[in-house]
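Sequence in, structure out. First:
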Amino acid sequence: MAVAVFAVFIMAVRAYRWISPHASSRPAALHQPAPSTDKAGVERYQYLCTDVVDGDTIVVSSLGSVRLIGIDTPEMNYDLGVPQPFAVEAREFCKRLVLRKTVLLEFDEVKRDKYGRALAYVFVGDTFVNAELVKAGLARAYHIPPDDRYKDELKRLERDARTKPLGLWLNDN
């Protein structure tokens, strides 16, 4: 009897969490340190990268998950256990660039996605991480308006990777 009551309680808690909006799913204001400014006058915010979820999602100190905007990498499919082709390579490439390093985040018009992740262009020093993934053929240029600051550069890099062909584009017909 006690096990049944406990099971019902657990199911009720899960149902409540599923139907109730909670802080982690609500887009919230970004808690940002003081910005630095690049040569073009664009503000960038400094964080420490503490984890890499996949090729286009990282975790940074005091902000949480960050989705790299302007690109799309293959999915790791953690729930299914079978990553898409080049997903592991994209994640490992991103790890080499950002993990345990100071990253600079540059935000565009939309600050968070529907999953609550911050949306940003990511830099390590002068290296534009989003662009490096596309250049290596491990990400597609993926434009969602109104975030279009680097749209043309990312599209050009994708064309170059397709032409070579690299990564995702090796078997492209």
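Second:
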Amino acid sequence: MSTPSPVRRVVERYRGIGLLALALALYVLEGLLPRPAPWFRLGLSNIVVLLVLVRQGPLPALRLSLIRTLLGSLFLGNLLTPVIVLNLAGSVASWGAMSALMPLYPRRVSLVGISLTGAAFHATAQWATAIGVLLPGLAWGLLPLILLPSLAAGVVVGLITAAVLPQEPDLRIQPG
């Protein structure tokens, strides 16, 4: 296997930084917009995470998701609050669920199905973390109120990703 040229390494590094910047911009912008409920976000930055998952694989998608969550929380002023624990739990659970489905894509599972699963795991992990760590008095019976809007958001993110994927340049990081 040949070593990537210095130019290729620079291009790949800046491509990753550009994707992070896009995901971070969407995350922060969405955090500044009014929401119908305090916990509800459309999750538009997950479009970038899903694109990276499809094109580059699970580990680059995990790195992007974690860095986006940490920097976005820093920019929004909730890095040192309990919100970061919920966000990280949701991000890791969502990534794990979506990564597990990738071997089935595109023959048996669509991007909408992967995104929908990620949204469900994200919401459930956040609720479980809230119950287990932050507010033990919360009831599991309230999960559907959290889950339904999250599933709708997962469908939207999946549809947008499916529309963008054929249009975007090849994001694969290839040797040489």
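Remark: The mean pLDDT is 87.
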